[in-house]
Amino acid sequence: MHGWINDWKKGGNVRHRARQARQPIPWRGGVQAQQVCHWGHGRRWFEVGRVIDQDNNQQTRSRGEEGDQADSEHKTAMHFFKSIHDDDEHAFESEANGTIQNVNDKWEAEAWLNRCGWPRHLEGIDPNQLRALLQPIGDDEPVLQRMWEVFEQVLDDAYDATVRECYPGTAELFEIARKEVHITTAKPFQGLMEPDAWERYKSRWKQLLCIWKRYQSWNAGDVSSEDGESSHSDSSDTSSTDGDDSSSSPSAIHDDIGRRPPYKMTIRQEEAWKAFNHGITQVVTGTDIRGRYTHERLHRSCLDTVVQFLDHPFKSGNHYDSIIISALAVMGLDEGGGWVPVTNYTPVYSAVIKVARYLVLYQSILERLVLQSKINSSRVDLIDPL
């Protein structure tokens, strides 16, 4: 027992005793309590809060000390919450900056990633370095700037030629719209597009070109050592772009970046890309003294290179050997972290596929014009041999 006895007795001068200090009491005042219910064990009171302003007789510290303690408690609380925020931010950045990991889960998002195979293709590569490939063309990339100028002109010419030369009923329109080799489509390829849609479609191919060119700044040595075979793109990059890699790569990409995505060019793709890249470099650096790389030559070299990229045989069964499909995997990275949702990425496929059809049609039109010119020349020679 606490042995406490109430010193207030009945009678006497109550006002006088109220002004005097009372003896300590064995309970706390100013406590807020609550009941669960009004019957049984629920009738017991339990503490839910305290009143800050207590009676002066029960205060053990002065107001100044309470203010100092409040400031100290406030600083402690702020430090505590800041440490939690810093830990969460550090964990988030660590996860975002970590290398890409393969996924193996049954959830819908992971099922989409498993089906497209992006994590498998880009596994172990820093996603921040991959996102740097998607950055807009910088002022320190003159070769890439000139490449896009030529490529954009090729795309516009391909669109104009398709609309002008391929009228409704043209055989090429049915062939290019074919989805399977043994099935002839009933509807021809629709060439007309809205101007704003065409600009959006071209922007997707601009990203592809940026990725292809910036791939050269990556150290591809790990790819050949892992696969046990050499990649044709390695020899092309080292032999033709020794002087322009540093000027055509964004500042976010460094020489010690590590291995790049393991795509593989064919011999023809390597030769076509090497010729196009070398011609653009000669023009930009002013070393084309003889003027061999005219606008028409660069124009056709660009078209042939892209068509060669589209004509990629899948002998090993790995679709990501194609430099186009490899770049499409990089375009699947979201700017804010993670992967682009499937609903947001399908327009990318639509843009790439449709523009590819324009390019193939354009090349067939040019080849047909060249063949007709040769036939007409041979006829003239037969009629007038002199």
From TrEMBL:
Chain segments carrying region Disordered: 1-21, 223-260
Ranges annotated as biased composition (Low complexity): 236-252
Protein's recorded name: Uncharacterized protein
Lineage, uppermost ranks: Eukaryota, Fungi, Dikarya, Ascomycota, Pezizomycotina
